[in-house]
Amino acid sequence: MTLADLQRGDRARITAIATSEASVQRLMIMGLVEGAELECVGASLGGDPVEYRLFGGKVSLRRDDGQRFEIEKLSTDG
Amino acid sequence: MASRSEAVAVPVSSVTISRNRTIALVGNPNAGKSTVFNRLTGLRQKTANYPGVTVEKRIGRLQLERDLIDLIDLPGTYSLSPGSDDERIAIDVLLGRMAGTPEPNVVLAVIDGTRLYQGLYLLEQLVELGRPLVVALTMTDAAAQKNVSVDTAKLSELLGNVPICEVVATTGRGIKELRAALGDALDADAPEPRTFWPALRRAAEGIAAELGNDMPRGPSIIEIERALIDADEAGVAKLREALGQRADELVETARRTICAGEPPLACEARARYDWIRSVLPAVQHDAGAHARVGAIVADWINRPIPATVLFLGLMAVIFQAVFAWATPVMDMIDAAASALGAAIQTTLPDGILASFLADGVIAGVGSVIIFLPQILILFLFIIIMEDTGYLARAAFLVDRAMRSVGLSGQSVIPLLSSFACAVPAIMATRVIPNRRDRIATILAAPFMTCSARLPVYALLIAAFVPVANVGPLNLQGLVLFGLYMVGIVGGLLTALLLRRSALRGPKPTFILALPEFHWPNPQTVLIKLLDRARVFLRRAGTVIFTVAVVVWVLAYFPRSEEIESQRDTAIAAAEATLVDVALEDAVADIENEAAAAHLGQSWLGRAGRVVEPVFRPLGWDWRVSAAVIAGFPAREVVVAVLGTIYAVGAEADEATLTERLQNARWPDGQLVFTLPTVLGLLLFYAWCLQCAATVATIKRETNSWRWPIFAWTYMTTLGYVGALMLYQLGSS
Asked: Which of B183, B501, B658, B679 has the highest local Cβ count within 10 Å?
């Protein structure tokens, strides 16, 4: 499962990252690293890009980039 | 405003100007950096450019006790690894390797209290930089609203006793303490070296040992670290210079040791965020329960449908404001310029001086100032959208739609701005990080129907499009709407074609931090507005003014004595036979005929005749050709030139000019302005790049003549071919 599969309200933890692309590395600098927990806030018009809440800050990325981040889903009430 | 009054308390005469001391202001984008900058410096700021790039360098004067210190506002960045031109500049200044900018004595980091997680990444790197550091923690009021608090004492301790000042930029709270902390930091010694990622520091020190002490101007430890991590070749080149072949070998070995084959940037992110996640619970306390009304509303409004409605509504308000609110002021400016011109014509004797002042200088100044109301209103909205964080939201919303033409969401505001004027629009493309996206946007912007095209559209539509209805819609309105669409389609197709050809590049990405909504700070808004108005007047104003004077010269010279004497004879004849109103009318007619005759044999008129064969296949006679030529440097002069050329005077009242145009004939008696000619002419105006100010702005912003020359040639060709096809198809 990847970040791109999350629905609005889902929470997840990043488990593995395909790091080769420069855009993925930029996202890692912004805090999307293994172990980071985030919540899918919602998608834009047309379903892309998607907005995530990450330790209080909000980041948006396209689904193509989201697919580089493997995740495990967390229970929504946690 | 305690800080401001304190600033003026010391008489200026006793202030020492310490030009050699500099504070660099750095922080994440949207962290509230420019508000802190404005709070600290007030209006004592200026803008310049860094050598070779279009990134603006903002420098303010900060008065601390008796010292005046330069404060440099650096572009926002998330890290010391450059991801764009802007970020590279911030990093080069911080590392003290930016030509023309002194090494900063103190670094002032602006960190967003609501996004501490991301802010700590940059903060770690800034601590490692080894320069005296002061932290301004912003947005703590917004964090408090979400029941999030930051333990600044604990954070300071973890970073090595870095002073941290909580600042509420909107009210100015904490600025006084910040000034004091900056004063102390300027007198402080360099802090103890510190690292949060020992593996990297060890590797860099290993390489530094290889360099030995015989390299006094060699790379610093930080520069070696950046060379190891960043794909940036500049740093590695510096090592190669010192170590020759061995450099690459050493770098490779070090990278393998630290990163075990992973990209160094990814390793750095992991290492640093490991530390951040380990300390975050100790410094940031989240009491939860942030289901406030404001947050619920914000969440709802960010959903696609409400967000779209809000976006369209906002755009409608901006368009309404730019076109409707500005009109009364523009009319006043227009009337004032005309009155002044008329006053000069009546007080000064007829001749070159009066004509130069009235038709050259005043018309020139007027044609610059007349755009100011629209531009200021447009800038005001853009700045407020920027300052509240809405700009990022808008980009997020329309990204998908813009991607279908090969652009990203960040292109939408520049493109919408160009419906008022392409010059500020092209200046606004600076927010686009990807260079290819940016150039594609710059080349699409001049296609949008700017306000200078409207008078031409209005004149020709009123004169030649019949007043009729198509269903419930007005035909004239439809044609105007069609012209807007023609511009939009032309611009977007151009962007698409460019992204598929000359500007083809890797899959575009769209990574954006979405800031929380916050109220704009009036002081920041005002300072930015004044700054951009000044930039517009300086850049576009000088070009537009020069153009107006040049067009006047072309239309005035050479002067024919024969026409003058004919005019005098005709007036004398009229005075002999007519009186009162009839005489006035007759004299006005004679004056207008003489003006038209003068223009006909002026350089401009001759040029029109020379190029007539070129435009003949489009159905244009020499008069239209001359007006089009006059419009190339600035399309806004076209209506005035048409007025003069058709002998109704430059201040043509539209009804008269319309009538003249409708009756204009070729020597063989055929009408000049048939529907195909008019539609072709309109299309020509929609697509052609008739604006020297835009060309100059493209040159400035792309830093080469390549793109402005391409844009001009491409758009002119497109306009010509479009008009040609419309005329030929329509007339056959």
From this structure: B679
Place of tokens 């933890």: A13
Q: B298, B272, B383: which is closest to B114 by C-alpha?
A: B298
Q: Which residues of A touch B280 (CB under 8 A)?
A: 55
Q: ipTM beyond 0.90?
A: yes
> How far is A3 from chain B, CA to nearest CA, in Å?
14
Please, are residues B138 and B173 in contact by the beta-carbon 8 Å criterion?
A: no
- Cβ of A60 within 8 Å of Cβ of B510? The answer is yes
Residues of B in contact with A44 (CB under 8 A): 304, 307, 396-400
Q: A3-74 has which CATH code? A: 2.30.30.90
Question: What's the pLDDT band for B710 if we cut at 50, 70, 90?
Answer: very high
Other Cβ atoms less than 10 A from the Cβ of A64: the count is 16
What distances in angstroms separate CA B716 from CA B396, B614, B629, B690, one per listed residue?
34, 13, 12, 8
Written as one string, the DSSP assignment of B169-184 is TTTTBTHHHHHHHHHH
Q: Which of A15-19, B194-198, B423-427, B591-595 has the lowest mean pLDDT?
A: B591-595
Which of B485, B477, B409, B712 has the alpha carbon at shortest distance from A62?
B409
- Chain B residues within 8 A of A51 when measuring between CB atoms: 302, 396, 514
Say what the pTM is: 0.80
Strands B469-470 and A37-43: unpaired
Segment B298-327, tens digit of pLDDT: 778 778 889 899 988 888 888 788 777 888
Q: Per DSSP, which regions of B506-629 are E strands?
A: 512-513
| Cβ–Cβ < 8 Å for B461, B679 | no
Helix H or strand E segment including B3: helix B2-9
The reply to whether omega before B51 is within 30° of 0 (cis) is no
B307 touches chain A (CB under 8 A): yes
Give, rounded to a whole angstrom, the gap between the first and last alpha carbons of chain A: 19
Are B512 and A60 an interchain contact pair (Cβ–Cβ within 8 Å)?
Answer: yes
